[in-house]
Amino acid sequence: MANDTGGLRGLVAILLLVMFIATCGSARDPVKYSLANQNEGSKRKPSNSNPPPKPSPKPKMRSKPKTTPNPEPTPSPTPAPPAIKRGSTFSVLDYGAKGDGATEDTEAFLDAWGAACHHEAPSAMLVPSNREFLVGPISFSGPCEPNIVFQLDGTIIAPTSAKAWGTGRLQWLEFRVLEQVKIQGRGTIEGRGSVWWSNTQYLLSNSLDTKLSGNLPHTRPTALRFYGSSKVTVTGITIQNSQQCHLKFDSCQAVEVSGVTISSPGDSPNTDGIHLQNSVGVTIRSTDMACGDDCISIQTGCSNIQIQNVKCGPGHGISIGGLGKGNTQAAVSDVTVQNADLVGTLTGVRIKTWQGGSGYAKGFRFSNIKVSQVMTPIVIDQFYCEQTKCKNQTSAVALSDITYDGVVGTYTVQPVRLACSDSKPCSGIHLSGIQLQGAQQRGKVLDPFCWKAFGDIKGPTEPPIHCLQ
Questions:
Q1: What mean pLDDT do residues 396-420 have?
Q2: Between residues 14 and 97, which one has the greater pLDDT?
Q3: For a FRET experiment, which of 4, 71, 151, 411 has its CA 20 to 30 Å from that of 32?
Q4: Is residue 203's pLDDT more than 80?
């Protein structure tokens, strides 16, 4: 019985051993076991000191088996931006301009402008030096790529034949609807206006008929005009002998004029230097003007105007107006004229309005104004009239907040004339530092004159101004 029991126990032990071996073999990960066999070239079990981890269940795959990824996948490189084309200079000579002063180069100028206009900024149109380019009425129109430069180093001359002008033009060279445009250089715009001025009396005294004998049309153009443009810079150039106004800004914003020379004879008719209308944010500095009318004329719709370090003479001075012509409404504000030198001019600093107008003109400051041989240095004229006779009217443009500080020098007719409206008296006139001496003349000089002018005086004036109310 004992032997049977012992044999049975041995048999049980053998069966348990076989079952244990079978169980351990089935617990192995077949993939890891296969990899271990491939790496080690044997079928040994993993070491008991580093037992294999329990396998995680695999997710169901809808695509090909996933390959082993890089530890930190690198994203696809971003394509490099296209190289930015650098600006180019487009010379009018490359577009057929002759520059001999006789052959008309208008088409070449238009073609060069078209190329520069649509080229990626910055780009420039070049009028080269040491040449004269005959150019007819032309419009350099936008919109264009911003930051375009008109590099004027040579001379542009106007045609003098009636045929070139047709029935008349309002401007000769026009820059229209542009943003960030600059005209720069040491070149000249030559209007050859004497052929127009010599015909003025004939044309004014006769109804115009340009077919009679080839006479030039009655409508005389402005030499250089900017319209509907912003961030405009004009620097360094000379404009001379314009047919009418030399440089005009109409409906423009953010304008800067510097280092410009304007030159025409003092008897050339209506040749204003710089004319502003409906323009905001204009700076004029370091500019020398000689002309036959106002050196600077500021019309309705203008505000935030800064004029600094300018010279004027001959000419009619620096003027605001005439405002309200033809019973129109005016709006002008915030004009500062500082460090101006006027020699031999009709007036110094002047405000002029027509009877019958309406609206306002306010916020003017004239400081450090030097005058020499000026007929009337300080003028407010609300009875302005360019005609032989004007009708008296009660309506007027209201004038207020006007400061004259440091107006010194010599006059030839009258030092101060403040003629204001009966219905709209001038208010807020402030005078200080007025030192004006009568120049040696054969005729007798006049005393200061005031009418319906209200304000105050700080400190003594020469001559005494007792008429301000």
A1: 97
A2: 97
A3: 71
A4: no
Q: Distance between CA 244 and CA 119 in Å, rounded?
A: 34
Question: One of 293, 294, 381, 401 is an active-site residue; which one?
Answer: 293
Neighbouring CB atoms inside 10 A of 134's CB total 21
pLDDT: which is higher, 307 or 88: 307
Residue labelled with tokens 């001075």: 317
Beta strands per DSSP E along 9-99: 89-91
Range 271-299 average pLDDT: 98
Alpha carbons within 13 angstroms on the beta-carbon side of residue 111 total 11
Nearest to 296 by CA among 252, 245, 227: 245
Give me the residue label for tokens 């030092």: 415
Q: How far apart are CA 305 and CA 274, in angstroms?
A: 13
Rounded Cα distance between 31 and 1, Å, is 50
Binning pLDDT at 50, 70 and 90, where does residue 122 land? confident
Amino acid in position 23? T
Residue 221 · residue 137 · CB < 8 Å:
yes
Q: What is the mean pLDDT of the chain?
A: 84
Specify whether 100 is catalytic. Answer: no
pLDDT band at 64 (very low <50, low <70, confident <90, very high): very low
Which residue reads 């510097």 in tokens?
A: 258
Distance CA 282, CA 133 (A): 30
Residue 197, token pair as written in the block: 């001025």
| Ramachandran class of 309: left when φ > 0, alpha when ψ lies in -120 to 50, beta otherwise | left
The 3-state DSSP composition of the chain as helix, strand, coil percent (nearest 5) reads 15, 40, 45
Residue given tokens 């008719």 in the structure block: 269
Q: What is the torsion angle, in degrees rounded to the nearest 10, for the CA atoms of residue 29, residue 30, residue 31 and residue 37?
A: 110
Which listed residue (119, 218, 246, 316) is catalytic? 316
Picking from 321, 315, 397, 399, the residue whose alpha carbon sits closest to that of residue 356 is 397
- 430 catalytic residue (yes or no): no
Q: What is the pTM of this model?
A: 0.79
CA angle 439, 315, 304 (to 5 degrees): 110
